[in-house]
Amino acid sequence: MHSAETIVVGGGMFGAAVAxxxxxxxxxxxxxxxxxxxxxxARGNFGLVWVQSKGLGLQxxxxxxxxxxxxxDDFATDLRDSANIDxxxxxGGGLNLLLSEEEREDYRRMIDIMRxxxxxxxxxxxxxxxxxxxxxxxxxxxxxxxxxxxxxxxxGHVNPLKLLRALHRGFTKLGGRYFPSNDVARITHDGGAFxxxxxxxxxxxxxxxxxxxxxxxxxAPMVGLNTPIRPQRGQVLVTEKIxxxxxxxxxxxxxxxxxxxxxxxxxxxxxxxxxxxLPVTQNIAARAVKAFPQMxxxxxxxxxxxxxxxxxxxxAIYDESETMPGAYxxxxxxxxxxxxxxxxxxxxxxxxxxxxxDFDHFSARRFDVPAxx
Length: 373
Ligand SMILES: Cc1cc2nc3c(=O)[nH]c(=O)nc-3n(C[C@H](O)[C@H](O)[C@H](O)COP(=O)(O)OP(=O)(O)OC[C@H]3O[C@@H](n4cnc5c(N)ncnc54)[C@H](O)[C@@H]3O)c2cc1C
What we know:
Number of strands: 20
Distance between the termini: 51 Å
Structural class: alpha/beta
Bound molecules: flavin-adenine dinucleotide
Strand order of the largest sheet: 9-3-2-13-20-19
Largest sheet: 6 strands, mixed
Low-confidence stretches: none
């Protein structure tokens, strides 16, 4: 039996960020993770720190995404110090290219609603013309079919694999204990302590955080919580490495710090099938060429499908169990964007009980709408 002050179940983008924050605050923490066969959104994502489209219908989540983006600079510095890894955080704003008049009109409507929803708090994204886009990305020729873009002032991007590596390395360097290949199958609560059991080990602590992506659905009911999430597939394409041409974050086409371009990001309701398909791949590639015609001559080297972790309203769930206090869940899409807030605020909520303003808006109780007759 391994004992600790806190058990974090999940070593993906959410779990590792919370575990890193806990150990940073001096909390003796074990982080239990699955294995290569698990669904792992942390290993297949696009790397955006993205704010402009987040929180439609839940303003607290829009604010939360922006707060996290603002914490990101310090967070990246902190990771560099503790893990000696530069995650290459860029925060000069982000462009979402609009490839038809219809897309532009749909986006304009969304921006109007977001602006109304934000009220005095403000909303910092706007539609800009193709000529302006061209000025912002001088290293690439913007295609004639581009109907403008939305520019979000708070957006940015990082290298997500380096981020995951940095969280893990920082965690262990600061004294955290990491147990890969320890899928938790059972959680019990006994005399103020939780016991989490994998096939090979048992762990005990007075607090337990479930931050294990799709694994949460099975485990949350064991601590009296309901955490509704569903899968959605995203396919991503990667090109060969070419000379650096654009540092700014682009919503569906971004150049990584290593030179390759990533093209993405489909939204497909295919259950837990994380394969790739030719029609979707072709569509993603065609959009990239429409946006920047020179991409036609850049070779694709890799593509993958990966399963998103989506709540019903695509906003985060953070909850503590009422029946078993000391058990928490933390889950959402946007684990890269929220990594800074998770490491700073969610770890503190778990260790001290300190919450952020209007924190109850993140409870899954928001989905408990009484059925109508
Ligand atoms: C195609 C795609 C693009 C994306 N792009 C972005 C983006 O640009 N920006 C952004 O912010 N977000 C993006 N995301 C979302 C982001 O990757 C996820 O929000 C994030 O990875 C979720 O973190 P998580 O820790 O909850 O889940 P995961 O990252 O999936 O990690 C879950 C972990 O828990 C482990 N686990 C599961 N069950 C158990 C168990 N029973 N016991 C122990 N361990 C367990 C698994 O092995 C895994 O390591 C994208 C996602 C996809 C799929």
